[in-house]
Amino acid sequence: MSKHTKILSALTLGIAAAGLMAAPASAKVEGDTIILGSAISLTGKYSSNGVDSQNGYNLAVSKINELGGVKVGGKSYKLKVQYYDDESTPARTAQLLERLIKQDGVQYILGPYSSATTIAAAPVVEKYKVPMIEAEGASRALFNKGYKYTFAVLSTTEQYLASSISLAAEIAKKNGKKPSDLKVAMVFENDAFSQDVRAGVMDDMKKFGMKAVIDDKMPADLSDISATLTKVKAVRPDMLVISGHNKGAVTAARQIKELQVDVPMIAMTHCEGAKIVKQFGASADGYLCPTQWAETLNYKDKYFGTAGDYNELFKASFKGYKNVPYQAAQASAAVIVFKEAFENANSLDKTKLRDAIAATDTETFYGPVKFAPEGNNIAKPMVLRQIQNGAFNVVAPSKYASHKVDWPRKAK
């Protein structure tokens, strides 16, 4: 067991997936330890991504503690996270945050996993004026309510698949075809995140005069999209766009392979987190996967070093990862922002801390972080990776590309 794995095991011992079991006696600060709290999806349909996020939080806590912790008022503090399992249920998220804040006395919140649960969390932290730095809720609905205590390190939903539409238009032009002639098929989960992604896709399609020939919703359990894929085979669109978190990505990749669906371009969220390369091998080649972060990007900080350094440390610390999900990287970035905000505020007071978070303007291994008045990160772009011979390579936008796009995708 590696040094970091031992540290990470200790961090979560006795506090992680307890639900409403008796919570450890906690306050915002215990001796020389600052307690952060999080209600996160450790079971339920978002559990895979929830565990990725928890691993990202824990790795950053471990690294920051290893480097001397957080210095406030001339004293050094360690960080620790108290977790509850929200079971991938927004109502549960809100209930558990109430418990963390009112009963456990936690005054600093790390966000849950998913837009739906973060939308449930935001009114709670606003009610108690407790700052929350979240890494996994990208929905635009979080940033048009006037919230003052919710801050997101990630890019917002409308940006996720925008570059795939632009890339399709660019390829069409190179091949003597009008972008407006492209036929697009879409299937999205009926949740806040995926429907916001859909809205962003529709906005970008309008720019090029594209129209959707299929516009379907996934079933609630995300277990079967064969009806949509059967229509795709009949209509033969130029592009298929999919979003359904990890479970939806697994379902799509499996059924596209089983039904031998052949589309020149397929763009899908959550490829890395769903581990579709590990599960489906060569049949996953050619998928275009939006990502908040990639290990090849030229980002670095004083905690983890480069994006590539973080990539190697994460894989050494947690078994079973061929590719590091961006969900983990952005979770680590959220902890870094908390650390720097504590030190910039030079105070443990939650109001002073909130103001220091709002004033954040920093560079991290994950990318730049600077918050708009609405709380979203306005400094970091999305990029698009393509699975090429099992590797995730950045292909768009062109200024960030490490590889050329493979087109058309070949069914395998």
Can you give a write-up of this model?
Helix 4 links the parallel strand 5 (109-110) and strand 6 (132-134). The protein has 2 domains: 3-157 and 295-370, Rossmann fold; 159-291 and 383-400, 3-Layer(aba) Sandwich (Rossmann fold), CATH 3.40.50. It has a 4-stranded mixed sheet with strand order 1-2-4-3. Strands 9-8-10-11 form a 4-stranded parallel sheet, with helices on both faces. A 3-stranded parallel sheet has the order 5-6-7. The protein contains 12 helices and 18 strands. It has helices at residues 3-12, 47-66, 90-103, 115-128, 162-174, 192-207, 226-235, 245-258, 276-280, 307-317, 326-345, 350-358; strands at residues 29-30, 33-40, 70-72, 75-85, 109-110, 132-134, 150-152, 183-188, 211-217, 239-243, 265-268, 288-291, 300-301, 305-306, 361-364, 367-370, 383-388, 391-396. Helix 2 (47-66) packs across helix 11 and helix 3 runs parallel beside helix 4 (115-128). It has 412 residues and is α/β, with parallel strands linked by helices.
CATH topology of the largest domain: Rossmann fold
Question: Strand share of the residues?
Answer: 15-25%
Low-confidence stretches at least 5 residues in length (pLDDT < 50)?
12-26
Helical percent range?
Answer: 25-40%
C-alpha geometry: globular
As laid out across the biggest beta sheet, the strand order is 1-2-4-3
As for the number of domains, it is: 2
Which class best fits the helix and strand makeup? alpha/beta
In sequence order, what are the helices and strands, one letter per element?
Answer: HEEHEEHEHEEHEHEHEHEHEEEHHHEEEE
Rg, Cα atoms, Å? 21 Å
DSSP E strands, number: 18
- The CATH architecture of the largest domain can be given as 3-Layer(aba) Sandwich
Distance between the termini: 38 Å
Mean pLDDT: 92
Largest sheet: 4 strands, mixed
Which CATH class of the largest domain?
Alpha Beta
CATH homologous superfamily (4th level) name of the largest domain: Response regulator
Number of helices: 12
